[in-house]
């Protein structure tokens, strides 16, 4: 527990990366049988590390950029791309907002 107090950004990175990876496994986005999907695990920790210790606005901006990059790799129509990116951004904003309210 002392390590957590001394290294808050690293701690946040580990927790957020692990939770994100857990959700990806649960949702079927990561499979032990698919080498390509396993590449997402270090990306989860990298994104968590970039976002750790940042303000809410910075985290939302980073996440919107990340979502745009990952969505651009899918063959979506322009309408579906905007819809997916918009819904993701709204969901993340609501989640971060609720999190900040609960922390106060």
Q: What secondary-structure arrangement, pairings included, does this model have?
A:
Layout: H1 2-6, H2 8-26, H3 35-38, H4 40-51, H5 56-72, H6 78-103
Helix pairs in contact: 2-4, 5-6
Low-confidence sequence ranges: none
Summarize the amount of helix as a percent range.
over 70%
Q: Report the sheet-strand fraction.
A: under 5%
Kindly provide the radius of gyration, computed on alpha-carbon positions and rounded to a whole number of angstroms: 15 Å
- Helical stretch count? 6
Number of domains: 1
Structural class: mainly alpha
What is the tally of beta strands?
A: 0
Description:
The structure is a single chain. The longest helix has 26 residues, at 78-103. The chain has one domain. 80% of the residues lie in helices and 0% in strands. It has six helices and no strands. It is mainly alpha-helical.
Features:
104 residues; mainly alpha; 6 helices; globular
Task: Summarize, please.
It contains 6 helices and no strands.
